[in-house]
User: Fold this.
Amino acid sequence: MLSKIKSYGLMGIDGFSVSVEVYVSGGLPAYDTVGLPDAAVRESKERVRAAIRNSGFEFPMQRITVNLAPADLRKEGSVYDLPVAIGLLDATGQIRNKTFAEEYLFLGELALDGTVRGVAGILPMVIGAYGQGLRKVIVPLENAAEASYIEGVQVYVAESLKHVVDFLNGEAALMPTPARKWDRARIAYPMDFADIKGQQGAKRAAEIAVAGGHNLLLVGTPGSGKTMLARSIPSILPELTFEEALEITKVHSIAGTLQGTEGMVSERPFRAPHHSASTASLIGGGQRAMPGEISLAHYGVLFLDEFPEFRKDTLEALRQPMEDGSVTIARAATRSTYPADFMLVAAMNPCPCGNYGSRISPCRCTRQQIARYLNRISGPMLDRVDLHVEMSEVGFEDIASRSAGERSETVRARVNAARRVQVLRYKREGILFNAQLTSRMTARFCALDAQAEALLRKAFASLRLSARAYTRILKVSRTIADLEGSEAIRSHHVAEAVQYRSLESKYWGDTRR
Amino acid sequence: MNRRELGALGEALALRYMQERGFALLAKNYRALRCEIDLVLRDGKTIVFAEVKTRAASSAYGLGREAVTTAKQRNIAKAAAAYLAAYSLYDACVRFDVLEVDAVNNLVTHIPGAFTL
Assistant:
């Protein structure tokens, strides 16, 4: 009369195995769910009852106690419908197979007619269960694709409760879905670098930023192509590795944003939230502490257009995850840590009217207005952006010129080469690209020769740089050298890196200091 | 015929109906803790607590089953728990049924497992 079924729960992107215990006994007929269930879990009672009856099984008129162990961790969502139903049928002797409970992991929501519905977060659950030694999982059809990428796990697709029970009884076949090999997407990007006329400097900066995973700020007059440049960045992003894809997919699986993919993210995410975004939507949050835009942009690009228009506290909330590459969201009931190693690309006008510094249209803003506008971007935030680039209007010659610029493919090849160098160099450090270097690693991998050091010393004094800016310049120099294929960082690498810091004193210098 | 007589008639009809179908009577109008159960029956190994609702006219006052409200269900359960305790039937299988009696047409509708707690 007692049945124990294996299932899984999530806390952030990691999880814990859940034992669904169903006890059917005499006494007054009742149905109780215990083990810190949330509302969706408690409601499973009605779905399970209807699904069992409509699948042609008998729902016991007895005292039913469902326990989700461990009892001290909160269980969320509808994923336990299927294990509870299977446990009930097992406890009432409606499943003849007596050994299945040890072998299989059950995940899935039930419709009233007994159909098994998809749930969010299957991939991290299956990975977690695999780590705990389980090799056979029964998942909903909608989630079969994402689960089938985990090598060594047999994924069985559950279409309906009846089908699953027939399978356990040996009356129907449930073929494991073939394990999939992950393949990088070969997609056509809507925008190509060759389509952007002029703006050589900005394109170069974008290439460096992408090659090393650095943050990029584009300042420029309206129509200078900031948004266009940012939107074409996906076409030069380095190739995704399987490990990266797996980590990105975990986050997207939890957020339920995997629709339209083959079950696995196959390209780096590019997230562009509108500037009205709330802090919780950007950082993550809500009652269930769900991942936000910065986590959905993990190993990809977070593009913030009209940077100063974002709410100030929202922007400041980005600072800590930008340093750590992850974010911990604490709520009264839950506490979740999500990865958030994104590359920030921000675009802004130089002043409220947008024409400050323009060669064509005069700026109508007062000094105070400009200062107030620029000061919405705080010093600490600016400090965390490695490359600052100014973009001015494109001249007629550039627009009309027929000579196409470099194609994204060419740029991407250079980026990939630079990334390969980095991956190889940091194999033992547990990081993938230059932006992830810790200060200790920076000292080791970004050694300068005497000439380069002298140059940096001078820049440090004249640009009044912070210690953080100093290490960030070193990292960018590292990337510039890597793009050139040079293992040593030379003075011209440093010079270029320093140059991407000069905007700060031009625009913010007299307003802030 | 007043309400009490109508109720008694309905319960008699319901009891006969159940006995014809093999249910054994254990108690009639069992009272405990200010609550009452119309019929306590035995169906094989299962103890059945049945609430009888009788209607004289058609459905002017709603169906009998609709009259078994949540509060009434709680009362029945309370009395049932007392009954089980009184006879030390702690582990017995238990069911709550509702019996609808149409006193005009002598019709009984049996709803097994009408509610759980």
Observations:
- The CA atoms of residues 2 and 126 of chain A lie 25 Å apart.
- Chain A has a mean pLDDT of 89.
